[in-house]
Input
Amino acid sequence: MKRATKGALKSSLRDRGIEVALAPSRRLSHAHYTRVRRFRLPAAVAATLHRPAQGAMLVDVDRILNRAGFSYAASGWHPYVAALEEYLADPRATYATSVLRAFYERFQPTTVRGLLLDERGTPEGRLATWPAVERLIDLWSATAEDVDRTRRSLAGMHELPHSQYRGPNPDLFGAKHLSRVVDAYHSFVRVGYQPEVYGFVTGYFLTRGDDYRFVLGHGNHRVAALSVLGQQQIAVRLRESHPPVVAESDLARWTTRRGGLLDMAEVEAVFDRFFRDDSKQRAEALGIT
Output
């Protein structure tokens, strides 16, 4: 089946609340990873489906977080948002003195546990052994093969690969990301945000009853700029190759008891943190608010 046809079929199934989670590779031995699952979008979001474009829906900016759990809400804290606000207050300021550089210097977790959770008072399970790399941040889609392959690829490396979600990062890397946020902001001021032109941001939902959080996959710089501009809602699309919805009522699916990789305490701690924490406390602990 051609890729375009597969994509159309997957989109059609998703429109009907059905997700086909494919195996991580084409090998027959991995077929047991494939699942056909039903999911339910948050009611307020489902009501906007297909508007303003096919397959798109509207989400509230104050319910959007990045994959490390930093919030784009006006009441929360996000390093890109803080850096953009700092730039707008003084456009002559440089990356060398920016809050983004301070963030990368002070937030340098080495494990997924440290990246997603407060290492004090939180479960110390398998996440404490997973390296803090982007492929493993998405613990809802990670497989045992992902973990093993990532560990093998990092063996012998003196430091983790660079990441926009944590340090350490060279100044050139950080300055590039700050520039992307600033450029997005100025572009949206000039012509407005046109997702059909710039591309839709993508992600997945965490749901707790009628409440939800939207976790970004692509679009971190764009959403930071839109947050500073005071945008209330943003058109999004579901992220490919990731469960569209992780519901609190179905968290057991990701536990070792159900064939997953984690203990229930870890799964619940990560899920709860995305709803409970606006990330201001993390910034305060780092001394950068």
